[in-house]
C-alpha cells in the first residue's frame, strides 16, 4: 500500500536524524555528575537538617530510551535521610531548592527556580551568555533581598478554588458549542485546516523555501477557533469588540530569563519531591523493551510533534511525556493484535502471603500504586521468544493506524468503521484494560483553578491523559483551547496528506514539513514584568 510505504520511507529517513548519539549521552552524563558534585558540596557546607546528602537521578526521555538529539535532561533530587526509617519520605525542606539554585549560579552556570509550576523545577543551562547570566543573577538577588516572610509564602489557599468552568471555556477562549460538535459527523468539515492557517517550511535537502502565508498564521488561527466556538465569523468579529484577542503562538516567545533553544550548552530540569517520575520512566523503558518497533515509533511521533510545534506544555500544547503515552495507548490497546502487553496488568505476584504483603508495601509510593512488570531481563527474554506479541505489522502500518485513530474523522462509508479516539468524552488510561475511561467517570468535566500565595494551578480537561500512577493527575492539563485545536488539526492534516497518496491528487505538503511562525516581539511592559 502506497501510504504505508511512504511512512516506512519517512521513518527510515527521519528516525536516524533524531536518535541521540552515544557521545551526546556521555556528555550529558558527565554534566549530571558535575552538577551532582556542585550540589553535594553546597549541601554539605550550607545545610544542617535531617538529610545527610542528596543525589541527582536521571528520569524522563534520556533514561527511558525515548530521548532525541538535543533533548533536555530531567533529573530528580533524591534525599538520603540521616534517619533510615524516613527513607520513604518525599517532602524536603523548603529552602533546599533555593540553596541549590545559589550553588548553580555561584558555579557560573545558568540557574532559575520555577516555583509557579505544579512541582518546583530548577532549570539549568551549562554555558549561559553573559546577558542571560546577569539577568538570572539579578533575579536571584531580588529574591535574596525580600523580607523573610515574603520569600516563602504559605502554600495554603489564599483564595477559594474557583468554581468549575465549562470544559471549553478556558483562558478566555469560549466555545460553548465545541463539546457538542467535537465528535459529530459535521465537525470534521468545520475544523480549521492547518494547511491554510499555518505557514510551513518544507522538508528538503536544498535551501529551504518558506511558503508565504495568505494571512498572518496567528490571526487565521484565532479566526478559525472563534468560528468553531461560535459558529460564524460574524459572531467572532462581534466578540472582538468586547475583548482584545491575544496573539497566540505554538512556540513560546523567549523572555530575558528564558534559556534559548541553542547556544547555552546542555540544559536540564531538576525536579523536587517527584518520586513517581522515576517510576514512570522505568515503566516507559520497560515498554521500549517489549518490542523493537516501540522506540522508533515513539521517536517518529515526537519528532513530528516537534516539527509541527505541538509539543510544548509551556505554550498550551502537549508535553513529550504526553505524546509517549498517546503512542503507548495505541500500541497496547488499539493496534490489533496488540504490539505490547499492558505492563501494569502483567505484574508477576509473589506466591506466599508474607512476600505478597512486602511486595504491596514496596510498590506503594506517596499513596499511589506503582506496580508493573519491571524485570527488564525477563521482558527482553519474553520479547525475543515471541511471547509478548503476535503483531507483525511494519512501522509504517502502525503509524498509519496511529494517525487515523487520533484524526477521529467520520464518513468512512461502507464496511467496518476503524477505531477512533473521541477527544470530547474520552480519557486515555494506560493502566485500564482497553485503555479508555470517560471524563464523566473521573469527574474531569470542568476546568478548576487553585490559587495559593505562591502559584496558580489550573487543571484543564479539554484533552485528558491519566497519569499511569498518579491517577488524579491529567498529563494534558496544560493543553488550552487553542492548543487542542492545533493538536487535533495536526492529526487531520497528517491524515489528509496520507489519504492523498496513491489517489492521484496533490498533497498539501509533507508530514514532516516544519511549522514556521512569526513570533511577536515582547512588549516593553512584558519585558519589565519578566524582570
Automatic annotation (TrEMBL):
PANTHER family noted in UniProt: POLY A POLYMERASE CID PAP -RELATED, POLY(A) RNA POLYMERASE GLD2
Biased composition (Polar residues): 214-231
Example GO molecular function: RNA uridylyltransferase activity
GO biological process, one term: negative regulation of macromolecule metabolic process
Homology family: Belongs to the DNA polymerase type-B-like family.
Positions of the Poly(A) RNA polymerase mitochondrial-like central palm domain: 17-129, 262-288
Ranges for region Disordered: 144-248
Organism: Alternaria panax
Entry GO CC: cytoplasm
Top-level EC class: transferase
EC numbers on record: 2.7.7.19
This protein's UniProt keywords: Cytoplasm, Magnesium, Metal-binding, Nucleotidyltransferase, Transferase
Cofactor: Mg(2+); Mn(2+)
Basic and acidic residues composition-biased segments: 144-153
Residue span(s) of domain PAP-associated: 394-473
Lineage of origin: Eukaryota, Fungi, Dikarya, Ascomycota, Pezizomycotina
Designated name of the protein: polynucleotide adenylyltransferase
Subcellular location(s) per record: Cytoplasm
Amino acid at each position: 500500500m502506497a501510504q504505508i510505504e511512504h511512512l516506512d520511507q519517512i521513518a527510515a529517513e527521519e528516525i536516524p536524524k533524531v536518535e541521540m548519539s552515544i557521545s551526546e549521552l556521555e556528555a550529558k552524563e558527565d554534566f549530571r555528575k558535575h552538577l551532582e558534585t556542585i550540589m553535594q558540596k553546597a549541601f554539605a557546607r550550607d545545610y544542617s537538617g535531617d538529610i545527610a546528602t542528596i543525589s541527582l537521578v536521571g528520569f524522563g526521555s534520556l533514561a527511558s530510551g525515548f530521548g532525541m538529539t538535543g533533548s533536555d535532561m530531567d533529573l530528580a533530587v533524591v534525599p538520603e535521610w540521616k534517619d533510615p526509617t524516613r527513607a520513604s519520605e518525599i517532602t524536603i525542606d523548603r529552602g533546599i531548592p533555593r540553596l541549590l539554585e545559589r550553588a548553580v549560579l555561584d558555579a557560573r552556570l545558568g540557574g532559575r527556580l520555577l516555583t509557579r509550576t505544579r512541582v518546583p523545577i530548577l532549570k539549568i543551562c551549562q554555558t549561559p551568555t553573559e546577558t542571560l547570566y546577569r539577568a538570572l543573577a539579578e533575579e536571584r538577588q531580588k529574591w535574596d533581598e525580600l523580607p523573610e516572610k515574603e520569600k516563602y509564602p504559605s502554600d495554603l489557599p489564599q483564595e477559594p478554588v474557583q468554581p468549575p468552568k465549562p470544559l471549553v471555556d478556558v483562558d478566555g477562549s469560549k466555545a460553548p458549542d465545541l463539546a457538542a460538535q467535537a465528535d459529530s459527523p459535521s465537525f470534521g468539515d468545520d475544523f480549521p485546516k492547518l494547511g491554510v492557517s499555518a505557514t510551513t517550511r518544507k522538508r528538503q535537502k536544498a535551501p529551504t523555501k518558506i511558503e508565504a502565508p495568505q494571512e498572518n498564521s496567528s490571526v487565521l488561527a484565532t479566526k478559525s477557533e472563534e468560528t468553531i466556538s461560535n459558529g460564524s465569523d460574524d459572531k467572532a468579529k462581534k466578540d472582538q469588540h468586547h475583548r482584545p484577542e491575544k496573539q497566540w503562538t505554538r512556540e513560546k516567545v523567549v523572555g530575558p530569563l528564558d534559556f534559548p533553544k541553542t547556544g547555552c550548552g546542555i540544559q536540564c530540569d531538576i525536579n523536587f519531591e517527584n518520586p513517581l517520575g522515576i517510576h514512570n520512566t522505568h515503566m516507559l523503558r520497560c515498554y521500549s523493551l517489549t518490542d523493537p518497533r516501540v522506540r522508533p515509533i515513539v521517536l517518529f511521533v515526537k519528532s513530528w510533534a516537534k516539527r509541527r510545534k505541538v509539543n510544548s506544555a509551556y505554550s498550551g500544547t502537549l508535553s513529550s511525556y504526553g505524546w509517549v503515552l498517546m503512542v503507548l495507548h495505541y500500541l497496547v490497546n488499539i493496534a490489533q493484535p496488540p504490539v505490547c502487553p499492558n505492563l501494569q496488568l502483567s505484574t508477576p505476584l509473589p506466591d506466599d502471603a508474607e512476600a505478597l504483603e512486602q511486595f504491596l508495601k514496596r510498590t506503594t509510593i506517596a499513596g499511589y500504586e506503582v506496580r508493573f512488570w519491571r524485570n527488564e531481563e525477563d521482558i527482553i527474554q519474553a520479547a525475543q521468544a515471541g511471547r509478548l506479541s503476535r503483531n507483525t505489522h511494519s512501522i509504517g502500518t502502525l503509524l498509519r493506524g496511529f494517525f487515523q485513530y487520533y484524526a477521529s474523522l467520520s464518513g468512512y462509508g461502507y464496511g467496518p468503521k476503524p477505531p477512533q479516539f473521541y477527544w470530547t468524552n474520552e480519557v486515555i488510561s494506560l493502566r485500564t484494560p482497553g485503555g479508555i475511561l470517560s471524563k464523566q467517570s473521573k469527574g474531569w468535566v470542568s476546568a478548576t483553578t487553585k490559587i495559593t500565595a505562591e502559584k496558580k494551578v489550573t487543571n484543564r480537561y479539554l484533552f485528558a491523559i491519566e497519569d499511569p500512577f498518579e491517577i488524579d493527575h491529567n498529563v494534558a492539563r496544560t493543553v488550552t483551547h487553542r492548543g487542542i485545536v492545533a493538536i487535533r488539526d495536526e492529526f487531520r492534516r497528517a491524515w489528509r496528506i496520507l489519504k492523498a497518496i496513491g489517489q492521484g491528487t496533490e498533497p498539501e505538503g509533507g508530514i514532516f514539513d516544519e511549522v514556521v511562525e512569526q513570533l511577536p516581539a515582547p512588549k516593553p511592559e512584558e519585558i519589565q514584568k519578566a524582570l
